[in-house]
Specification:
The protein has 337 residues and is mainly beta. It contains one helix and 29 strands. The protein has one helix spanning 16-26, and strands at 8-13, 30-35, 42-47, 50-56, 66-71, 95-98, 106-107, 113-116, 127-133, 137-138, 144-146, 150-164, 171-174, 178-180, 187-203, 209-211, 227-228, 231-232, 234-236, 243-246, 250-254, 266-272, 275-279, 287-293, 295-300, 303-308, 312-315, 322-325, 330-336. Strands 7, 8, 9, 10, 12, 13, 14, 15 and 19 form a nine-stranded antiparallel beta sheet that branches. A seven-stranded mixed beta sheet has the order 5-1-4-3-2-16-11, with helices on one face. The protein has a seven-stranded antiparallel beta sheet with strand order 6-27-24-29-22-21-20, with no helix packed on it. The radius of gyration is 21 Å and the shape is globular.
Length: 337
């Protein structure tokens, strides 16, 4: 293998997991990137200048087990670019609901289970995933980074031990805590306990995840003020949260994720009290919302839908929406853009 030409190849296969495992375990290749992380259909590897991108072929499209071709481009058609631009057309999507009872999770990067909360991805603008790690213990993750414009990690249940480039020692993210994960920041998931569940919201919907091979974490430098692609790492802790009364309908917690995102995304958490129908408290913004606690009834132009904990919905800013809390207090995590 040491004398292989320094060339790029694409390996088409219907079993991307088996092909990837053979490259790493039997042939000594190292992982370079995954695309996308929630349900990989392209995985890049390299060894001694020899690069292979394993890509998922449509079922029944190959004559044999695989098809290997030399290519010029190391990332053939995989990079959607560095900007979300105006992917979501005005008025193209008004109201979407994701039911927690529908659909099973898909095993994605590092063995994590991903449940897609926005199957349509808003035309490529946004991906929202419910990620779970049911078993306690170390996570088979590696130091990596994402090419994204915006990425939120919000802990819903359990605890997860994380470490980030230039941010000091590893720390536990607990239920109600969240972080803004800037583009390019190296990080790693170390351990999960308590039946971990997190909400991950990213833009653009499909983006590259690269393995970092030279930097070990935690690194010696601690530069909390450092910018990554114009963004700062931000962390909001539930135990330090300040809840403010909001329009007599409940209370609101500002996470502080907004000014640091650099692309117009903000993250708020609302606690809505038991009461009569009222306009949904997100103002003049498109909003993706995840119901982290309780039950709520949404009225979208006389289309009434009941949501429970674990359900999610998207509503565009021009769409009329009212809600009713029928049973106790509910809590909604809202990403506004």
């Amino acid at each position: 293998m040491t004398n292989l030409p320094k060339t790029n190849f694409t390996l088409w296969t219907e079993d991307i997991d088996s092909a990837s495992e053979r490259l790493t375990r039997e042939m000594g290749f190292e992982l370079d990137f995954v695309f996308p992380a929630d349900n990989p259909r392209a995985v890049g590897f390299s060894r001694n200048g020899f690069k292979v991108v394993v890509r998922l072929a449509p079922e029944g499209s190959l004559d044999g087990n695989f098809d290997l071709k030399a290519v010029d481009d190391w990332l053939p058609g995989l990079d959607p670019g560095d900007s979300t631009a105006e992917v979501l057309k005005e008025g193209s999507v008004e109201f979407l609901i994701s039911d927690a009872a529908e659909g099973d999770g898909i095993t994605g990067r590092a063995g994590m289970s991903y449940r897609d909360l926005l199957p349509g991805r808003l035309g490529g603008l946004l991906i929202a995933s419910h990620i779970s790690i049911p078993e306690d213990g170390p996570v088979p993750d590696y130091v990596h980074f994402h090419r994204v414009d915006f990425q939120l990690i919000y802990c819903l249940k359990g605890r997860v031990l994380l470490v980030y480039e230039d941010q000091g020692d590893p720390f536990w993210l607990e239920a109600g805590d969240c972080v803004l994960q800037p583009t390019g920041i190296r990080h790693r998931v170390l351990e999960a306990i308590g039946g971990l569940e997190v909400l991950e919201v990213s833009s653009p919907a499909e983006h590259l995840t690269f393995a970092e091979k030279t930097l070990e974490l935690p690194n010696e430098k601690k530069r909390l003020e450092r910018k990554f692609g114009g963004q700062s790492f931000a962390r909001s802790l539930a135990r330090e949260a300040v809840w403010e009364d909001f329009d007599e309908i409940g209370s609101r917690r500002e996470t502080g994720i907004g000014s640091d995102s650099g692309v117009g995304f903000t993250v708020s958490v609302f606690r809505l009290k038991l009461g009569a129908v009222a306009g949904f408290p997100c103002g003049d913004s498109d909003r993706f919302c995840y119901l982290s606690k309780g039950e709520i009834e949404l009225d979208f132009g006389n289309d009434i839908r009941k949501l429970q904990t674990g359900d999610a919905f998207f509503v565009s800013k021009q769409a009329p929406l009212e809600y009713r809390v029928e049973w106790g207090e509910c809590e909604v995590v809202a990403v506004l853009f």
